[in-house]
Request: fold
Amino acid sequence: MAAAGSVLVYGAGASEPAARHLALKLGRRGHRARPSSATGFALADELLWLGHGDAVVIFQPGRRLREIEVLIDRARAVGAGVVLVSDELGAAFSGSVEAVLSAPHTPTGITAEPLTGMIVADALLLAIDSLDENRSVEYSHQLTALREQLLGP
Reply:
């Protein structure tokens, strides 16, 4: 992910907040990232822009959606790497993705569904920061400067 030309972060339904969170935070660190929650034919438009050297992060807890299979197939076809963040689908897709990261749900269901995905996203961000701390700090300073401009005097 750290060396990817761009990162497509996918999460549909309850997984969408985790996908949006990771894409936003990657952008704040100077990485080209875009979230997607598209399903059906709308997903095809998103997949057109996926290319060699890109990365895909998929947040999908338990249901094996057709969109996930098509997304992984497209990534394979163009030479993009895939990371799956899931509660139950790791075994089903472990042979077709670069990494499976576990994001288990609480047995009680007390926490919101995207919570563990967001925690995994933050761990990924910390790992990326550790690879190029200067880049992350520089983009953080730029973000602060832009926010100060927007606040005005």
Summary: The CA atoms of residues 29 and 139 lie 5 Å apart. The chain has a mean pLDDT of 89. The beta strands are 7-11, 33-36, 55-59, 81-86, 99-102.
